């Protein structure tokens, strides 16, 4: 069976690293490129983080492209250094590669997306794990880009107005609300959304994380290192944040979108409806609004996930850290 071609657009924090591991471990997936965007860290750190994950999995042949370093409009003043650390991977990596920049492709991420998808029309799944800036830029450079995609998977946004960086907005969308707005208005390809609430409501037990990172493999040891001092993977820190809304549990946000791309049966319930990203509200800017009653009169609907097979999802996570794969 032919492998599914995938481009991963990422702001590579710890959960992005976990998502990339899922894709690299999946026998039915061929990652044709990784495009980098600001978000969990500055874009140069993101590039280095992606290279590190690929190196650990012995997959350095996959090309990595540097993309946008800030939002389409205005200044970038929301970097969440308290969540995944300044570098996106928990600020625990000491031996950074001084030659990393030479390993990044010269082509801009948006141009690379357009080229790779044009060369493989209607065959490429795009998995967007960070702010949607590169995607918005791609459609401005080539308005026909989305119709050449097979489908689009997004981790971001929310469905009930519960925010994690502002009162009503999820982090990825809050980093570049205009980009999120453009993608949901103009990407008419099949689109699947793993929202913040979806991830949090389908959490795994904290004991699962301990089991996950205790395996004796290079990838598991890497995940153990980068989660060791990170607030986002601290049961105590989350009691005052996420647990207020959703109760206790381990959540690897971006992994949910990637799991859905790898194996659609992971998602067991979803809503199909039009959505729009709010740009104006003083408290609700960047909030994703679901139009369940068709008041917006939009022609395009998206699939918003609501429930997943947590056992199947957990199995994908377990398999993801058993890398590098034996040749």
CATH level 1 class label? Alpha Beta
Number of strands: 10
The chain-level mean pLDDT equals 93
What is the second-level CATH architecture?
A: Alpha-Beta Complex
Largest sheet: 8 strands, mixed
Question: What's a concise summary of this model?
Answer:
The chain is α/β, with parallel strands linked by helices. The protein has helices spanning 14-25, 43-56, 81-84, 109-119, 133-141, 145-148, 171-175, 177-186, 196-201, 206-213, 218-227, 235-239, 242-246, 253-262, 310-320, and strands at 4-10, 29-36, 64-66, 124-128, 151-155, 191-194, 267-273, 275-277, 288-290, 302-308. The protein contains 15 helices and 10 strands.
Key structural traits:
327 residues, 15 helices, eight-stranded mixed beta sheet, alpha/beta, Inosine-uridine Nucleoside N-ribohydrolase, Chain A, Inosine/uridine-preferring nucleoside hydrolase domain-containing protein, globular, Ribo_hydro-like, Inosine/uridine_hydrolase_dom, two-stranded antiparallel ribbon, single chain
Overview of this protein structure:
The protein is α/β, with parallel strands linked by helices. The protein has a single domain (4-320), classed as Inosine-uridine Nucleoside N-ribohydrolase, Chain A. It is built from 15 helices and 10 strands. It has helices at residues 14-25, 43-56, 81-84, 109-119, 133-141, 145-148, 171-175, 177-186, 196-201, 206-213, 218-227, 235-239, 242-246, 253-262, 310-320, and strands spanning 4-10, 29-36, 64-66, 124-128, 151-155, 191-194, 267-273, 275-277, 288-290, 302-308. The protein has an 8-stranded mixed β-sheet, with helices on both faces. A two-stranded antiparallel ribbon has the order 8-9. Helix 1 links the parallel strand 1 and strand 2 (29-36). The model has no long low-confidence stretch (mean pLDDT 93).
